């Protein structure tokens, strides 16, 4: 019996996937539920398990874009499992190279078409800023074709020695989708960014005193993300417009806080979601952040875990960023950017002191969030981070940390 394996649907909105890598070769014997391929969707990388045991015949190449429901391989379920490993593959007989026939020299004929570009090629060359006259056309009479334009590379100037190698690789479907969404956010939202600074001294003091006890009891570190997440949840309750989205001519507001956490995965930027963060404690946030980060790093994150989200937190500080303007994650209306912590001189009660300072940024959609709300939201986050015991822990640190 020949079983046709079709691409399963990774999610409701996904209609196409890309074969990122075949984990088996054509003719291999595979076991049922064995991972045979990795497929990229525009949201995640997923493993494709074999639906039955048998000999596999591949019907798609790596890099191919295939529709959901399309056949990607056949499995011969009647084939017997080879003893001692896979059955040996037939060796291909190498044919002796045939001598190349010598052709008579071709006299190049120049016409009006030589060096001119086709309409499609003109458009591509204009986007790249390349003159058609600088390209050797491969079309009839030397005309510059669309393929010539696609493969054309802008001049990098006159070489002066040294290595000047280049490489070209196809972007994954996930990275291409991220690129589309970032451009969409810039083009379709009235995005503005407001900034503030946070004195991290109180949080440093709490972590210094309780982090060892916290980790010993809960198995996770007491990091900055729990403080920021709970500060954001508090601010979203105070300014619900920031926890809203535009849908056509209507504004949808949420009474829950699904916080997206931007993380860097092996395939590109991913934003797994912490559901109902308003119900999570410090321990709950840290455990969920660790779980999602590990799954994203190992390529095990699912589409459902990255679907939704009402607000995003992005921590560029882990890479050393001092300041940035984060881009909104549509259809959300706001994103908070965390940055690195640097000891800076600040005025405290009329005196200059050195304090650990972090710059924070809130990018927001000005179509539904006014300046008063955006600034108020960021100030509320700042207040909670600078007074965590009173505003985030209800003046009971041990109870808040579940110690």
TrEMBL record:
Molecular function as annotated in GO: dihydrolipoyllysine-residue succinyltransferase activity
Cofactor note: Binds 1 lipoyl cofactor covalently.
SUPFAM superfamilies noted in UniProt: CoA-dependent acyltransferases, Peripheral subunit-binding domain of 2-oxo acid dehydrogenase complex, Single hybrid motif
Pathway assignment: Amino-acid degradation; L-lysine degradation via saccharopine pathway; glutaryl-CoA from L-lysine: step 6/6
Biased composition (Basic and acidic residues): 77-101
Cofactor: (R)-lipoate
Top-level taxon: Bacteria
Compositional bias of kind Polar residues: 106-116
EC number assigned by the record: 2.3.1.61
A Pfam family of this chain: Biotin_lipoyl
Gene3D superfamilies: 2.40.50.100, Chloramphenicol acetyltransferase-like domain, E3-binding domain
NCBIfam families registered for this protein in UniProt: PRK05704.1, sucB
Protein name as annotated: Dihydrolipoyllysine-residue succinyltransferase component of 2-oxoglutarate dehydrogenase complex
Gene: odhB
């Amino acid at each position: 019996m020949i079983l046709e394996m079709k691409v399963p649907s990774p999610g409701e909105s996904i209609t196409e996937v890309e074969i990122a890598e075949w984990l088996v070769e054509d003719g291999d014997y595979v076991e049922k539920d064995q991972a045979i391929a990795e497929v990229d969707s525009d949201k995640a990388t997923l493993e494709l398990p074999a639906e039955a045991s048998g000999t596999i015949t591949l019907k798609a190449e790596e890099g191919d874009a295939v529709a959901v429901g399309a056949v990607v391989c056949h499995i011969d379920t009647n084939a017997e499992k080879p003893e001692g490993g896979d059955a040996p593959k037939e060796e291909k007989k190498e044919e002796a190279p045939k001598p190349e026939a010598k052709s008579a020299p071709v006299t190049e004929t120049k016409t009006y078409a030589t060096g001119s570009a086709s309409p499609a090629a003109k458009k591509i060359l204009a986007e790249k800023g390349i003159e058609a006259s600088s390209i050797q056309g491969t079309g009839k009479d030397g005309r510059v074709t669309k393929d010539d334009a696609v493969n054309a590379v802008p001049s990098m100037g006159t070489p002066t020695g040294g290595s000047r190698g280049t490489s070209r690789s196809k972007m994954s479907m996930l990275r291409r989708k991220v690129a589309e969404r970032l451009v969409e956010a810039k083009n379709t939202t009235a995005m503005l960014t407001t900034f503030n600074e946070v004195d991290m001294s109180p949080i440093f003091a709490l972590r210094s005193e309780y982090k060892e006890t916290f980790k010993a009891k809960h198995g996770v570190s007491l990091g900055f993300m729990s403080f920021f997440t709970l500060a954001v949840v508090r601010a979203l309750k105070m300014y619900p417009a920031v926890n809203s989205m535009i849908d056509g001519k209507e504004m949808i507001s949420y009474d829950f806080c699904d916080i997206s956490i931007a993380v860097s995965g092996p395939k590109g930027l991913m934003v797994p979601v912490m559901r109902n963060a308003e119900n999570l404690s410090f321990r709950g946030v840290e455990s969920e952040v660790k779980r999602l980060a590990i799954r994203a790093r190992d390529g095990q994150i699912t589409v459902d875990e990255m679907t939704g989200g009402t607000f995003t937190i992005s921590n560029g500080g882990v890479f050393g960023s001092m300041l940035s303007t984060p881009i909104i994650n549509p259809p959300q209306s706001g994103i908070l950017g965390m940055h690195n912590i640097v000891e800076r001189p600040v005025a405290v009660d009329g005196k200059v002191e050195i304090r650990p300072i972090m710059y924070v940024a809130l990018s927001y959609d000005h179509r539904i969030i006014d300046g008063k709300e955006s600034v108020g939201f960021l100030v509320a986050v700042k207040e909670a981070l600078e007074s965590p015991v009173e505003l985030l822990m209800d003046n009971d640190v041990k109870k808040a940390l579940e110690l």
